[in-house]
Each structure stands twice: as structure tokens, then as C-alpha cells.
């Protein structure tokens, strides 16, 4: 097998990403027939079908997924090579980054501004979602996630533990008192994410969800819970990194109970294996890692 036409590879990548011959043709500014011919040529070269076509859908085969991974590495390497031909040339190109709403608000948005001021020819595509997107299939360069590193296809750096803390405004604590024991905690209005309900206290092994008797606000949006606590309405149980600026400004005060919650996983900076060979991805990876640890 010998693939000699890069245009066929580009056509394949666009059809794979768009799941549409029509949309891929628009992106490449060529006809749908030309796209179809390129895919047919490539399928003839590799010796297996790449897409299952129907009147409504274009579905990649399992072999197409494997080829897509190699094709992305090839194109990224070519772009990096072209850039390195001129050592004085500014770093440029696009970086696709994804993270949760909370991390985007509390950390990434500020860091992107700083990074782009240093590298004005870089373009960043930020996908904010609380879902875990497949980095390879969605052609994502970097992701910041909470949890545990499981996939062997990803290179990861642990930024730190996802420590959960209790905090409230000075006005709330002056009005309702500062709990020190779990028994006293039950008397308070608590706000926390649904995904944290099953987290255990380290000593007593009691679930956090058992302390929701007076819970007046339920939401899956962390910024809503944060704002509710900042307005003095409740004790918030949130990730330390998400509330650090409010703690430093004394808008919120950390509450130290006799029993603390277990960490909810760790904060990871992830990238598909091989992506760090791309200089701009590696630069942003190191930039985010350094600034998270220094925040």
C-alpha cells in the first residue's frame, strides 16, 4: 500500500470530522463529486472501506478511526515542519482546547487571554462542556478534566488533587454560626453538586448527601451555587480551585470541620499521545500546567 496524494488525506479528515461529503466539500471549496473521488481513491489504496454511506448518514468504519489518528499526526507533523523551516517565524496555527464550565470560568478564560497576548498568531478553539468528549475523534489537542486518568491513548499531567472545602460568607457565619462538627453541619443550608452526593467524610465514612435536609438550592451549575453562597444564603461545598479567589478576597471564609471530605479525584491536563510533538500544543500544555500550579 502506498498513499502518495495528501489531498486525499485532507479530504478524508474533513469527511471524518463533518460526517458529511457535502460539508467537507464546502470546507475544502471543491465539488461533492471531487470529494467522493478522493475518498474512493483512498479506499482503493488502503484496501478497505472508510465510510458506510446512506441517504442520511456517513458513518466512519472502525478502520477509519485508526486511519484518522495516523492522518492527524501526519498533518500536524507537516504543519510543524513547515513552521520550523523558518526559525524566525512566529508560532502560529490553531489549538483546540476543552474543559468544564467551572474551569473555563475560574481559570482557562484568563489564561487564554495571557497566552494569546504572547502568541498573537495562534488561534484557540475553546469547547466548554461538562461532558467528556473523545479527544481523538473530535480532534481536540488539550483537555483539563476532573477524575482519574484511565485511557492509555492520552498523555496526562496531574495538576493536583480536587480538594472539596466548606465555606460561607462572614455575614452567613455571623448570623447562623460556624459549624465545627457534623452534627452542627446538619443544621445548615448546604449547596453542592449532585455528583458530589456520594463523597464520603474521611473519618466517619458518611456520605455528603446525608446532610441535605435543609438544602434549599439544587443545581448542576457550579457558578450558580457559588453565587448563592457569595450572597450569604448557604454554606458551599465546592472545589478549592474554584473558590480560591473568593477566599483570598475574604468574600468567603473556609470552614474547618472535625471531619473532612475525601478528594473528588484529581485535576488532569490531558492530550492525545503524539500531540506534544506539535510545538504550539506543547507550549500551551506547559503554559497551563505552570500557571495552574502557580495560581
TrEMBL record:
InterPro entries xref list: LysR-type_TF_proteobact-type, LysR_HTH_N, LysR_subst-bd, WH-like_DNA-bd_sf, WH_DNA-bd_sf
GO function terms (MF aspect): DNA binding; DNA-binding transcription factor activity
All copies of domain HTH lysR-type, residue ranges: 1-61
This protein's UniProt keywords: DNA-binding, Transcription, Transcription regulation
Source species, domain of life: Bacteria
Pfam families hit by this protein: HTH_1, LysR_substrate
Family that this chain belongs to: Belongs to the LysR transcriptional regulatory family.
Official protein name in the record: LysR family transcriptional regulator
Protein source organism: Silvanigrella paludirubra
Amino acid at each position: 500500500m502506498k498513499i502518495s496524494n495528501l489531498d486525499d488525506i485532507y479530504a478524508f479528515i474533513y469527511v471524518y470530522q463533518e460526517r458529511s461529503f457535502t460539508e467537507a466539500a464546502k470546507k475544502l471549496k471543491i465539488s461533492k463529486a471531487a470529494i467522493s473521488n478522493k475518498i474512493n481513491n483512498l479506499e482503493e489504496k488502503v484496501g478497505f472501506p472508510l465510510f458506510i454511506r446512506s441517504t442520511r448518514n456517513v458513518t466512519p468504519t472502525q478502520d477509519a478511526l485508526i486511519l484518522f489518528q495516523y492522518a492527524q499526526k501526519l498533518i500536524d507533523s507537516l504543519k510543524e515542519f513547515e513552521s520550523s523551516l523558518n526559525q524566525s517565524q512566529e508560532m502560529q496555527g490553531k489549538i483546540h482546547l476543552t474543559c468544564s464550565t467551572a474551569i473555563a470560568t475560574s481559570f482557562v478564560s484568563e489564561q487564554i487571554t495571557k497566552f494569546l497576548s504572547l502568541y498573537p498568531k495562534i488561534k484557540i478553539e475553546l469547547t466548554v462542556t461538562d461532558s467528556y468528549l473523545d479527544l481523538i475523534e473530535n480532534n481536540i489537542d488539550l483537555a483539563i478534566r476532573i477524575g482519574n486518568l484511565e485511557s492509555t491513548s492520552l498523555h496526562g499531567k496531574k495538576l493536583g488533587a480536587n480538594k472539596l472545602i466548606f465555606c460561607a460568607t462572614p455575614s452567613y457565619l455571623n448570623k447562623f454560626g460556624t459549624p465545627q462538627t457534623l452534627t452542627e453541619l446538619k443544621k445548615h443550608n448546604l449547596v453542592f453538586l449532585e455528583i458530589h452526593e456520594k463523597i464520603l467524610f474521611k473519618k466517619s465514612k458518611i456520605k455528603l448527601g446525608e446532610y441535605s435536609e435543609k438544602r434549599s438550592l439544587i443545581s448542576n451549575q457550579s457558578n450558580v451555587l457559588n453565587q448563592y453562597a457569595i450572597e450569604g444564603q448557604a454554606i458551599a461545598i465546592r472545589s478549592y480551585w474554584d473558590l480560591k479567589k473568593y477566599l483570598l478576597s475574604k468574600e468567603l471564609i473556609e470552614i474547618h470541620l472535625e471531619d473532612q471530605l475525601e478528594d473528588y479525584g484529581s485535576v488532569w491536563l490531558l492530550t492525545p499521545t503524539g500531540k506534544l510533538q506539535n510545538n504550539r500544543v506543547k507550549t500551551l500544555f506547559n503554559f497551563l500546567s505552570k500557571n495552574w500550579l502557580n495560581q
